[in-house]
Design brief:
With 329 residues, the protein is an alpha/beta fold. It has helices at 45-57, 76-84, 101-111, 125-131, 137-149, 170-179, 196-203, 208-219, 284-288, 293-305; strands at 12-16, 62-66, 91-96, 115-119, 156-160, 183-187, 223-224, 235-238, 245-249, 262-265, 270-272, 280-282. It has one domain (12-326): TIM Barrel (Alpha-Beta Barrel), CATH 3.20.20. The protein is 31% helix and 16% strand. It is globular, with a radius of gyration of 19 Å. The chain binds S-adenosylmethionine (SAM) and iron/sulfur cluster.
């Protein structure tokens, strides 16, 4: 078991497969001035497999693939197949904008992917284009339908709420849970990096208490649910008469650092010790120096031991070096 310096059991590895994306969500990526890692700097499928094998030996049980947009990796199905075959990994999930799911949902499921979280900020076509840019609502929705048709369950939708952009969408999004056994999760905007999207996050932040009050005013009081999954950062509720769940992920107003159980691996092979800190420990040089599972395990154990206790957003501290698309959320 991998325990960090604060006695947290770290058993959940989030792996970013690429820093590239086919969207440009306003709070995540600017439309100009970005540079991306060349392919040679990204961890290969074989290297990712070696990392997951070492992580499983250390007690990691859950892996989530993210990005950038993980479905842009040409070898994403191969990566899923390799990870799904690692003994000890009993949960393999992905966070995606879903745009490539119409062609990939079935192969991914057959390769062993268990769950997908889909990013849908609004049900209104114009607002989708304003907030997520480069996307149409119909394309996002085709991804959701492909995920459901391929048998991924429960479907989870992630919506990041930005004032003046989609704060009017929280009720229509929450209503999806009335008739469907889906989870709709509202995420508070976090300032990451030092670019324009970080300023945007600060200026358009909506606390989840407000999102909840808006939903309750329309749908009635939400019933609190017991979390089935300890690694779920959402506080979950059910609307009166609803089938699905409404979740609130509130890293800014209600930090959950005390129960954090995750380690992040960036696409260029660095352990990023906390989403909201810049500290990193390099793994790629270990892998490329021929390091086997033992060497990887030692480096991962070092990263776990060095995990910071929590973030200090309230004191104005945030990351400066990496943007969200380069960490993986
Ligand atoms: N491209 C995929 C997607 O959008 O789901 C995976 C990567 S994305 C960085 C992972 C998650 O981070 C998404 O749910 C997205 O909504 C969220 N996210 C991105 N920027 C954010 C920000 N500044 N604050 C809060 N959440 C953010
Ligand atoms: Fe792309 Fe996801 Fe960032 Fe949006 S949040 S720009 S879909 S990586």
């Amino acid at each position: 078991m991998a325990r960090d310096g604060f006695d947290r059991d770290i058993n959940y590895l989030r792996i970013s497969l690429t820093d590239r994306c086919n969207l440009r969500c306003v709070y995540c990526m600017p439309t100009e001035g970005l540079t991306f890692f060349p392919d040679a700097e990204l961890l290969s499928a074989e290297e990712i497999q070696r990392v997951v094998e070492a992580a499983a030996e250390l007690g990691f049980r859950k892996v989530r693939l993210t990005g950038g947009e993980p479905l842009l990796r040409r070898d994403v199905v191969d990566i899923v197949r390799r990870i799904a075959a690692v003994p000890g990994i009993d949960d393999l999930a992905m966070t995606t904008n879903g745009l490539r799911l119409p062609e990939l949902a079935v192969p991914l499921r057959e390769a062993g992917l268990k769950r997908v979280n889909l990013h849908v900020d609004s049900l209104d076509p114009e607002r989708v284009e304003r907030l997520m840019r480069w996307s149409r609502h119909a394309d996002l929705w085709a991804g959701v339908e492909a995920a459901e048709a391929a048998g991924f369950a429960p479907i989870k939708l992630n919506a990041v709420i930005a004032r003046g952009y989609n704060d009017d969408d929280v009720v229509p999004l929450a209503r999806l849970t009335l008739e469907r056994d889906w989870a709709v999760r509202f995420i508070e905007l976090m300032p990451l990096g030092s670019g324009e999207e970080s300023r945007f996050a600060i200026d358009h932040y909506v606390p989840n208490a407000e999102v909840r009050a808006t939903i309750e005013a329309e749908l009635g009081p939400l019933e609190a649910l017991v979390n089935r999954d300890p690694s779920d950062e959402a506080r979950n509720y059910r609307a009166p008469g609803g089938r699905g769940r409404i979740g609130f992920i509130s890293p800014v107003s209600q930090p959950y650092c005390g129960s954090c159980n995750r380690m992040r691996l960036t696409a260029d092979g660095r352990f990023h010790l906390c989403l909201l800190h810049d500290d990193e420990i390099d793994l790629r040089s270990v892998l490329r120096a021929g390091g086997g599972r033992d060497a990887v395990r030692e480096q991962l154990a070092r990263a776990v031991a060095a995990k910071p206790t929590g973030h200090a957003l309230a004191e104005g501290q945030h990351t400066e070096l990496r943007r969200m698309h380069a960490i993986g959320g």
